[in-house]
Amino acid sequence: MKKIAILGSTGSIGTQTLEVVRENKDIEVLGLAAGKNIELLEQQIREFHPVCVAVWSEGKAEELKVKIADTDTRVVTGMEGLIEIATLEKAEILVTAIVGMIGLRPTIAAIQAGKDIALANKETMVTAGHLIMPMAKEYNVRILPVDSEHSAIFQSLQGNKGNPIHKILLTASGGPFRGKKEEDLLNIRVEDALKHPNWSMGQKITIDSSTMVNKGLEVIEAKWLFDVNVDQIQVVVQPQSVIHSMVEYEDGAVMAQLGTPDMKLPIQYALYYPERRYLPGDRLDFWEMGKLDFEKPDMETFYGLKLAYKAGREGGSLPTVLNAANELAVSKFLKREVKYLEIMEIIEDCMNAHKNIANPSLEQILQTEAETYERIESRR
């Protein structure tokens, strides 16, 4: 049996990971962690019988204890609870499907405990890739990407060990506002930004996709995962979301991974790497598809992507500012406290005000996050 734990089990990636578990009877779920959706978490506990679950909210954790008193599952809470799930003794793989920098400390703890990481928490790499990658090497831990684009790159690298990467072609759908200009985005509502044309994702990442900040975060993540310079990563808009990303080698050959827009494929590939197993679902029909389109991203209108390239080139603590400012700005947009275009304005303001730290420690990363939040909250 393959033994796993999941951070973020009630979110989009977490629930799809559990769909993969249902299809494969040789995976045992030892631990689950969620924020506050204890109704769904209770269902997951009764189906998968984990030994321990973590709930971020202490009040919700107490509620859950009452609900599952007839089971043998322990309930823990807070950051200590997340770390306990991440380091469960018998778990081999930790799926980090939690959203935000909250996933950083549990991921570090899991690496230090010798767990392989199925990485769906891009914020970990964006803010602390300079810490994570050397640590994974030190503890002989595999970082297996779950994001569809990074999984595609990872798959396109198989069989090419030792061959240098000339360029990574990181594909983007363009989101719901592809082709729009700034004046078209002045009165965008939350409901508009949540209508992604191809993917079914959580609210935060769907907004990030619409601004293309998500693609910028993925650029920085790819820099660390695949040991390339930011300027070796070219974003290509591929509206059909069929080509998930590509790698160009020194001889000009381009390897790509194609598939339907279904996150279960990269999830299952990470859990079983290097084995490929049957996965139920739709298959590409090239006769039906007819053609694939490619476009250059509009980095003037969607200048969050340009800001991400700047943060990725400068490195240090600046990517943390980018990430933290975006997290809080998106949260405020979802609460209708700021306008859509203010998301990128807030990010740019925070980045311009920050004094970069060249090689930040974990404590300095977390302090930078806190200072960024304070600056945003003091704007009004």
From TrEMBL:
Domain (DXP reductoisomerase C-terminal): residue spans on this chain: 258-372
Keyword match Manganese: yes
Catalysed reaction, written as an equation: 2-C-methyl-D-erythritol 4-phosphate + NADP(+) = 1-deoxy-D-xylulose 5-phosphate + NADPH + H(+)
UniProt keyword annotation of Metal-binding present: yes
Name of the top EC class for this enzyme: oxidoreductase
One example GO MF annotation: 1-deoxy-D-xylulose-5-phosphate reductoisomerase activity
Cofactors demanded by this protein: Mg(2+); Mn(2+)
Binding site residues for 1-deoxy-D-xylulose 5-phosphate: 122, 148-149, 173, 196, 209, 214-215, 218
Alphabetical UniProt keywords: Isoprene biosynthesis, Magnesium, Manganese, Metal-binding, NADP, Oxidoreductase
The protein's annotated pathway: Isoprenoid biosynthesis; isopentenyl diphosphate biosynthesis via DXP pathway; isopentenyl diphosphate from 1-deoxy-D-xylulose 5-phosphate: step 1/6
Cited InterPro entries: DXP_reductoisomerase, DXP_reductoisomerase_C, DXP_reductoisomerase_N, DXPR_C, DXPR_C_sf, NAD(P)-bd_dom_sf
Family: Belongs to the DXR family.
Entry protein name: 1-deoxy-D-xylulose 5-phosphate reductoisomerase
Gene: dxr
